[in-house]
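Replying to the earlier thread about multi-chain prediction with a worked example.

Input:
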Amino acid sequence: MAEKKIGRVIHRHNFSGMLELFRLAPEAGSAFPEYKAGQYIALSRDNCKLTKKSPGPDGETSYVYDLDESGNPKRGPVTHSYSISSAPFETQGNGYLEFYVVLEMIETGTPGRLSESLFKLDPDTDNRIYYMNKIAGEFTLDKRAAADRSVVMVGTGTGLAPFASMIKQLNFEAGRGSRSDKRFTLIHANRTREELGYHEELLGIEASKKLDFVYLPSVSRPTPEVLADPSLGKGRANNVLRHILGMELKEEEELRRAVEGGGDSAKAKAALERTVRPVLPRNLSRELLLRRMEAPQTVVITCGNPAGMADIQYIADANHMRFEKEDW
Ligand SMILES: Cc1cc2nc3c(=O)[nH]c(=O)nc-3n(C[C@H](O)[C@H](O)[C@H](O)COP(=O)(O)OP(=O)(O)OC[C@H]3O[C@@H](n4cnc5c(N)ncnc54)[C@H](O)[C@@H]3O)c2cc1C
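Result:
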């Protein structure tokens, strides 16, 4: 069992109220264990609002606040794993670990227990996070992409975290003369322009050309300003990938299947009407991207919530590409 230690948040950046990045310094007098890009660590706070199981009207279980005699949620510790978004060289040089975290909203419309507490952190007054002094995980390039020539990374939302770590580390190593011979393409989709974490840094790495690296940022809920900005992609990550590979959008496929099945297609039609059509950033053509995704030598590697990743797997399978994922 790993030792539990107390870290301190030394920097916090809020992207949107629902998405943040923070840096954690280790317990005084110690250092974080060494790690590889793509790994995770368990974090915990002890003032989280606790929940208990409650059977819903439809028989499904949901979680509601576990209240005390005064009607307030009971407080206690909650521990979860978080992918490290800093690169190993950054931790070696600066001591901290960095995280890219979303405020989880659970089925009942209330915030998740630990993420709510993480969003209340204040580097000056309430900055303690417990961590297990062990960094683990098999979601590393040597375990998931050792033999593939071409690596297509698909990060939806905070699923970018392990890929941010990997690309920063690869870029650092390339700068020291140890350039990877692989081709990396990163699709990162998030709801808004402001939520595209690491955007400037990834653009900078792409522009420096130390690596064979292409970055495709996409906004899934574009505002008129984003729609008018040709430097940004539009649409959800799965539909961007479908578009590159010449497939129907997910919602088009679902509508087609509903029509073919002879059932009620109204819901599928409405979903398609709401769908943001994929658009690539101006500097990236479909042809260029396709050349980076030749089937026998490509792995599609993704990270995030299981529902979002199922379609990425379907796309990879349909195009005979290898598929790897990190389930959260
Ligand atoms: C390897 C790994 C890496 C991850 N990396 C990241 C990352 O980089 N960034 C990020 O934002 N997230 C990451 N996550 C997700 C993270 O671990 C948490 O699951 C997430 O922050 C939600 O935690 P929460 O306490 O806020 O939500 P919770 O309160 O745990 O709610 C989440 C779900 O759990 C259920 N639930 C609620 N209460 C209970 C209960 N009492 N008992 C059992 N189930 C309950 C609910 O149905 C809800 O849908 C990662 C997960 C894994 C496994």
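The first helix runs from residue 88 to 94.

Feel free to reuse this layout for your own posts.
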